[in-house]
User: Which sequence fits this backbone?
């Protein structure tokens, strides 16, 4: 898609431009798209010979699909979402941290708490939680990196009164003393809350947890550096699923499996790959349509 003329959701336009695409115009959510705006965008698209419409996955495709329909272009979606939790503390407390990434579901219960324009991942998490899909969990930790996450944390406490909900606020500024003090206070608070969830109080095995996660990170860095040499064997989708699996497995067990995979991969000759190479970061590519490009 380098040098291809595109129209993009305002949430994804800068990223599309960073990939070398020519962003002809940006558009907002469907509810902000008046008939006059649509007509103007269609005219711009025709004049610029736009080939692709790029939606933001969390915003839905209601805005982009009419454009691609009028212009006869391809419609794709990108996704981004920030997330950070100190998993090492959870692991040290004797629990298995797992990621909650929503899923395919209709929205009947979650709409009581979240508007339709909220992030689809969080809406799905709320819906599944209210349906009882997460009842097997000992508790749910929710960070606060965006406005919707802040709302979900408090909404969950009301919607799921029997499920322990722990809000986690980690400062983004890591250079000033005040931020460091807040982070340590947050870790102390989290330790206290996790202790309440333990069947019987037990020491937090911090050193062991830290080593497990350091080993995991080292293996994953090696995996990321190695895979580009074997793109015929491990394509973008396979790589994505292998990386994502770590969010649902014990990190120690996962790291052993990844080490075995790496050793087997490196035992093979490096491969010649003739396809297009694209670099993306974060969970921008947590979308099968994007991975299938």
Assistant:
């Amino acid at each position: 898609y380098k040098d291809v003329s595109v129209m993009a959701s305002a949430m994804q336009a800068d990223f599309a431009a960073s990939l070398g695409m020519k962003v002809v115009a940006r558009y907002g959510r469907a509810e902000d798209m008046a008939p006059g705006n649509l007509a103007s965008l269609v005219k711009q698209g025709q004049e610029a010979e736009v080939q692709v419409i790029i939606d933001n996955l969390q915003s839905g495709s209601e805005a982009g699909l009419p454009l691609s329909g009028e212009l006869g272009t391809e419609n794709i979606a990108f996704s981004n979402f920030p997330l950070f939790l100190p998993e090492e503390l959870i692991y040290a407390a004797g629990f298995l941290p797992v990621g909650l990434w929503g899923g395919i579901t209709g929205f009947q219960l979650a709409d009581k708490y979240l508007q339709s324009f909220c992030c689809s991942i969080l809406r799905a998490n709320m819906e599944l939680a209210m349906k009882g899909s997460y009842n097997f969990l000992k508790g749910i930790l929710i960070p606060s990196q965006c406005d919707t996450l802040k709302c979900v944390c408090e909404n969950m406490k009301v919607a799921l009164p029997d499920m322990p909900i722990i809000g986690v606020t980690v400062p983004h500024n890591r250079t000033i003393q005040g931020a460091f003090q807040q982070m340590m206070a947050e870790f102390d608070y989290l330790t206290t809350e996790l202790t309440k969830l333990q069947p019987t109080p037990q020491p937090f095995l911090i050193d062991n947890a830290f080593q497990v996660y350091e080993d995991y990170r080292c293996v994953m860095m090696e995996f990321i550096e190695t895979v580009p040499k074997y793109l015929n064997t491990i394509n973008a989708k396979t790589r994505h699923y292998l990386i994502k699996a770590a969010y649902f497995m014990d990190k120690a067990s996962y790291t052993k499996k990844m080490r075995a995979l790496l050793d087997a991969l490196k035992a093979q000759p490096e491969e010649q790959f003739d396809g297009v190479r694209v670099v993306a970061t974060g969970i921008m590519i947590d979308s099968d349509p994007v991975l299938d490009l």
DSSP finds eleven helices and six strands in the chain. The mean pLDDT is 84. The CA atoms of residues 136 and 198 lie 15 Å apart.
